[in-house]
Amino acid sequence: MRKSVLVIGIAILTLVGCKNGEQKDVTSEEIQETIDPTIIDEHNSQNSLDWAGVYEGTTPCASCVGIETVLELRSDDTFSISQRYIGKQPEGQSFDDAGSFTWDDTGSIITLEAQGSVIQFRVGENQVIMLDMAGNIISGELADFYVLKKKI
User: Fold this and answer.
1) SS3 of residue 123 by DSSP
2) Which of 14, 24, 91, 99 has the most CB atoms in a 10 Å sphere around its CB?
3) Burial category of 59 from C-beta neighbours within 10 Å (exposed 0-12, middle 13-18, buried 19 and up)
4) How many whole angstroms separate alpha carbon 81 and alpha carbon 66?
């Protein structure tokens, strides 16, 4: 008799415990009410990454083997860039430029004005990605060649 009372008691506790463990369905409106709209995540490449340094890579070239590119970004928002054309006559022809760069409003993209042209890069963790003329990431089979890796 004592065992059956103990078994019944355990069964009742189990049922009550399961009832209390039920999950309440939460609507998206209830979730939205709990989110504080005044909290804004202000982390971006400009203020969260150690972006200053030297980046290197070989970007594609329509009339040569490639363009060996070395970009130095300094913490005072200045840059120097060297682009050496590989396999183009005269061999090793290079273009060097320096100046200051600006960050976009998101703090993720920098704009360099070099040799009369504008070059944009998306700044990432230990890399910068050269963007197309419209400011978009270049896609396709050559996309990886537009990534310059941080060396220093």
Assistant:
1) strand
2) 99
3) middle
4) 16
Residue 61 phi, psi (nearest 5) = -140, 135
**Would the pLDDT of 44 be above 90?**
no
For the record, the structure tokens of 121 come out as 């890069």
Two tokens, residue 104: 């976009």
CB 73 within 8 A of CB 101: yes
Phi, then psi, of 41 in degrees rounded to 5: -80, 110
* The pair of three-digit structure tokens given for residue 133, joined into one six-digit string: 């003329």
Tell me the sheet residues that pair with 118: 113
pTM greater than 0.90: no
- Measure the CA–CA gap between 141 and 134, rounded to whole angstroms: 19
Q: Residue 142: what pLDDT?
A: 93
Single-letter residue type at 122: R
The answer to whether residues 57 and 69 touch, using CB atoms and an 8 Å cutoff, is yes
CA dist 72 → 12, 53, 101, 103 (Å) = 71, 6, 11, 15
